[in-house]
Structures are given as C-alpha cells and as structure tokens.
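#dry-run=false #mode=assembly
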Amino acid sequence: MAKTSSRLPTKADVVARTPDPAVREMLLHLERIGIETPFDRFEQQKPQCSFGLEGTCCKNCHMGPCRVTPKKPRGVCGADANLIAARNLLRWMAAGVAAHGARGREVMLALKGAAEGSLDLPILGPEKVRATAKVFGIDAPEKSVESLAGEIAMILLDDLCRTLPGPHRTLEAMAPPERLAIWKSLDILPVGAYHEVFEALHRTGTGTDSDWENVTRQLLRCGLAFAWSSVMGSAIAMDCLYGLPKRGRISTNLGAITEDTVNIAVHGHSPVLVSAIVKAARRDELIAEARAAGASTIRLYGICCSGNSALAKFGDVTPLSNAMGAELVLGTGALDLWVADVQDVFPGIMDVAACFHTRVVTTSDSARLPGAEHIAFDHHHSNLDQADVLAERIVRRGIAAFGERQAGKVFIPKARMDAEIGFSVENILETFGGAAILLEHLRSGRIRGVVNLVGCNNPKVVYEESVVRVAEALIAHDVLVLTNGCAAFALLKLGFCLPEGLAATGSGLASVLEPLGLPPVWHMGECLDNARASAFFRTFANASGEPLHTLPLAFSSPEWSNEKGVGAALGFRLLGLDSYHCIGLPVSGSAAVSRFFYEGSRDVLGSVMVVEPDPVRLAERIITDMDARRAALEWPAAGAANPRRLTGLQGNGPAHAHPHDPSTDHDHAHDHGAGSHHH
Ligand code: SF4
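#status=ok
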C-alpha cells in the first residue's frame, strides 16, 4: 500500500531546484518584499492531515466527520476505508466532470447562438463543422455550415445534459469499437454528463451505495462522461466556433512582458469572453486610447488555460504562467489588469494584486473574487450577445489602470524564450502527408512512442521540476511529447517547443522532426485539448489496425493536483493507455481501492495508474513499458538514447546532474513524494 512520505519539498527546495530561473528570481524577490505565495502557504499547511492524504476521512454527513483507522475501522454509519476512499474519489471525479463541462456548456451555447444568428459571432471553423457533421452522420451538401453547427451544438448539449436515457451520441460516434464493446460489457456507458454527476452525488450520500466496487463503476462512468462530453464535446464546440489552431512562433516567460504597454492578463478557462477581449484589444480606437494614456499599444498575456486557448486560436497572446505561478506574475507589478474567469484562479491572487496597482476583473457568475470588479456573463447567459460590449469595458479598465502603474515597484526577470505553438491533428497529418507515414515512423522505432505530458502543478513536488525531468528523459529516448495546459508552460519556457530542442533528443526522433523543422514537444493548447491528443492517438490505432492498449502511447501528468486531473488520467486509462504520475491518488488508506487503480484495472481496462515519485525513474518506467509494447507487437527496438538532457545544455539542469544512462540513473536522491505508490 502507498505510504505518505514525510519529505515534502520546502520552499528552499523549490528555490534551489525549480528549473525556470524566472520562477526562482520571483520567489526571492517576493520574499524580500514580504509577499506570500502558494509556496509559503504550503509550508504553513505542514504537516498535512494523514486522513486526507490517505482518503480515509468522510464528512458526507453530520454524524461525522469520521476518520477510520485499523483500530476504529468503521464510521458511525458502518462505512469502511474502502467505501470511504472510493466515495471521496468519486466526488472529486464528479467535480472534474462538472468543471470542464460547465465551461464547455458556455461554448456550446455560444456555438448555438452563432449558428442561429442570435449572437454576432462568425463560425470560424467551417472545416471542423463539416468533419464533425460527417462523423455524426448529419452532413448533407444542401445544409449550410450554420445549420450544421446548430445541429452539432444541440447534440453536444444533449450529451452533456440528457434528460431521458439514451445513447451518448458523441461517444458512440467517435470511440473505437473495441473500446465501446469493453465499456458496454462493464455497463459503464454514461447517460450524459449532468446525469452522471447527479448520480455520483446521489450514490455517495449517506447510506446509499455501500459497495465500493459499484461506487468505482460509477467513477468509470463519470470518466467516460468527462472524456466524451466535458472534454471532447467542449473541444469540438471550440474548434467549430473559433477554428482550428494555427501554427506559429511566440515569445514566453516573464522577460516577454513589456513595460511601455497596457498589459492585460487573461486567467482561467473560458474562451468566449477572452476571444472578445482579443478582438477588442486589436481595435484601432482602443489602441489609440492606450496611446493617449502614454502606452505604445495594448498587449495580452495568458495565465493557465485561457491564455493557452486564445494563443492557439489567435496567436497574439503571450503565455506567462500556469495557475500555480500566477501570483509570481502579479508580483512583477507590471500587469495593469487581471481578467479572471473560471477554475484554477486561486483566491490568493487578490492579496498580491492589492500590493500593486493591478486591477482584477471577474467575468463569470460562477467565479467571484471579493475585491474584484465584476464585468461578466450572468447566471442565465442571457447577455452572451453582449460579449463585445463587456470586452470593450474590460480593456478600458486596463487602459485606465496603466496610468496608475508604480514604476518603482516593477520587477521583471529577464528570462524569455521563443516557442512553436498551435499543433492539431489536422495540421500534423498535413505536415507529415498522412497517418501512414507517421505510423511508419512509430513502427520503425524512429519515434519510440508518444506521451501526452500534461496536468496541473502540485507543491508536493518541486514546482515544474517533475514535468521537465520527465520531458527531457522522454525526448532523449526518441519519445515524442504532446503537451497542453499547466504542464505546457514549463516546456514552453525552457525551450522544449523549439526545433533547437532536437539537440537533446535521440537520433531517431531528430531524423523525423529535423527535416520538417518541428520541435520535440508539440504544444496542443489548453487542458481541454487532451481531446486532440486522444484523437492523435486514435489515428495510430486506426492506421495500424491495432487496439490502443497495445500501442506505445501513454498519458502522464507528473504534478497533477486538481479534480479535473483525476478525470484526465482516467479518460486515457479508459482508452487502454497507462497513466504515469509522481503523485498518487488519496486512496492509500484502502488496500482494495489502491489495488484497483494500480493493478486490478489492467484486467478490465487494459491499463493502470503508475506512480513513481522520482521523475527520472517515472520516465524510465514509461520507456520500459513502451519497449515491452513494441516487443509484443514485434516492432523493431528503438535506438540508443542521447546522453544529453535539454536543461543541462541550457545550464538549468539539476544540481545533482545524472549520467543519464537509465541503467545507472538510480542513485540520485530525489525524495519528492507524498501519497505515492511504489511498485
Ligand atoms: Fe461518518 Fe458515514 Fe457520515 Fe461518512 S457518511 S461522515 S462515514 S457516518
């Protein structure tokens, strides 16, 4: 059973080992000026409650909270550790389905409004509309893009909110038949996302579902609702409305902030108002107002997924940081306006903003911040058609705040990096000339495997270190890496998304990517763009005729922390791909539930969750497992690894540099883990 390590990173560990020099500089600067960040608050929270870490605290009713141990193994109602851990996890899972689904719903409503003409929004992805209509079997030459977009929006909304039991149309149209058969046999096909969340809350209530295995079955059902409604449905709606990502090169990290501009950060996950803000910031009239206020122009910066998403679609948003680093960005004192929508906007940002002139605006009824101005879509989305008006007001707030900037308080680290962005399945297949060519690269071993390396951050491991160590080991072993969301920031900032990164890959991967001028890590956008990664994986299954669970493909979120992260990993495991992490699930207090996630799900899904606190060892495990899959397919072995590591070449390597031969890489003393599971 997993043990909770007492050795969690300290803030000093983060300062010593976090791979981005700008993060280190900001941590030291904020400490000097007395501003607290998540890394200080994490210190204050130690020691963390072991019942919480192990999943054995229940407060589902007010007879509790009950904390079960071997000496007092049942709660007041009789629930044991297996049931309590499974119920707790299911409630997290349900929250993840709701989180992605709620913001997806906003885009689906916007797509519907654009299709019907009630919103003044162009449909920028006609090719996605037609392609999706074909998959749904509703395409016909006489139907306009608008009418098809309207039908698609209704299918997606229906899958999300289905009232009467019926087939989940997105899942049934797009899932591999081999998987559909497995899910049917397990009886885990979802009715719809709303229903499965409702049912999850229902059956985890006091005295309802007392069978941990049946609770876990509902968790799998929620996993499918998460993957095919909350993620895939939302991603389809976004691509139809805003168009497919465009390849481009951008600058990133704090050194990309300019001082003579009106600086507006967009933070969160909801693209509808953000896209209107991008449009407004490009308007001549507003740029003229910014100039009249003394700025050279208006610039937009991206925090977390709002930035990633707008970046992929529109290009002119400079990505700065994931959610965990948001307070460090605010601490530069160089942002005039902070536009916060939904999810991963920590309340702590308000205390940092209050130390500077930075104004904060909230834009969703679902997510208010005390002290922020609220310029938002209402609870009923009755003012969705007012997006441009709201966006103009918001940009004007930024222009007004520019004049209040206190030059003496501005502190901007110099670190800055270029990065290639905007990868989609569609533009990748076009670049390579089809799936058969890509498959041949994979089969031959030039590409050893593909990993979707994503997830949020967690101070239980050194900030951004695990993502970076896993990525550099993977590319050195010819593993192609896809990324999105919070994890992507570390890779963008440290040069993984530049063709120059090929200097630290194996020769096989370089031979595939160099002629095309491609980087070793492909940025696919925000966390909903896990849908792109799973679609990319399915192209290999389709092209090879081999089921997904046999292919050298994997999911990894080394530093995951939030409820959506549970769903993201489960979504890929439901496809038969193993998921790899440095942090385990809070189920270690239950032997049965732990066994299911780390071993038993192999029999039913063909996949397990692998947890290894040391990121270098985690990468080795991914590579070993890929090689085993390759051998089982009788595909050629991949070539030798590059002994160099990308951050080592850049001087940002670990102080305890490895020789980087996996067979000799075991002696270093990483000890990051909490809630970790060892095999
Ligand atoms: Fe305790 Fe049972 Fe209530 Fe949970 S549901 S708090 S285990 S009595």
